């Protein structure tokens, strides 16, 4: 850990691309395994901290966990490709950077999908939506419609609470049409 922290805090590390620094940090924390439990979680948290501190203001829009969880076996296999004697991280770095790119593209596509009605947005201005309302909009865009029953099931709400959620969105004049 001392060697890793010396490298991590060195001025040379500041000169490296933040995605590479976060990738190496992830690998090293998993390899060193400094804790009894939670090493993977700690490594993934450190990745997000490194990215954030180095200018990737991601505001919790994405997590690499989604990428890793798509094929958990590949994640573990790729970590194992690093020979501990040679420390050739090439395959791990390729896997990790692909994960960052895939995750960022996913967020970009999601944002673009939520802002299809540009004319409406320009006329109305930005509409502040809470997490629940964003999920409702996503569901509408995904299925071209939503029912009160859908909202009930999505959030485990009563009939009247689901109605209230949809009414709030109508009152805000949220338009989810894809003209």
TrEMBL record:
**Domain Fido, which positions?**
1-98
Protein name, UniProt field: Fic family protein
Residues spanning the membrane: none
**UniProt-listed Pfam families:** Fic (PF02661)
Q: Which organism is it from?
A: Methanobacterium spitsbergense
């Amino acid at each position: 850990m001392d060697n890793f922290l010396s490298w991590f805090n060195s001025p040379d590390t500041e000169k490296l691309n933040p995605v590479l620094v976060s990738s190496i940090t992830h690998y090293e924390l998993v390899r060193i395994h400094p804790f009894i439990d939670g090493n993977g979680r700690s490594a993934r948290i450190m990745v997000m901290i490194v990215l954030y501190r180095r200018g990737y203001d991601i505001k919790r829009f994405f997590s690499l966990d989604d990428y890793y969880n798509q094929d958990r076996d590949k994640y573990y296999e790729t970590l194992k490709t690093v020979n501990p004697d040679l420390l050739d991280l090439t395959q791990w770095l390729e896997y990790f950077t692909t994960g960052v790119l895939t995750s960022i593209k996913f967020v970009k596509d999601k944002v673009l999908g939520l802002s299809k009605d540009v004319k409406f947005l320009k006329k109305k201005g930005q509409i502040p939506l809470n997490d629940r309302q964003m999920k409702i909009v996503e569901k509408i865009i995904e299925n071209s419609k939503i029912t009160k029953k859908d909202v009930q099931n999505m959030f485990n709400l009563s009939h009247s609470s689901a109605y209230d959620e949809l009414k709030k969105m109508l009152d805000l004049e949220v338009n989810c049409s894809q003209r």
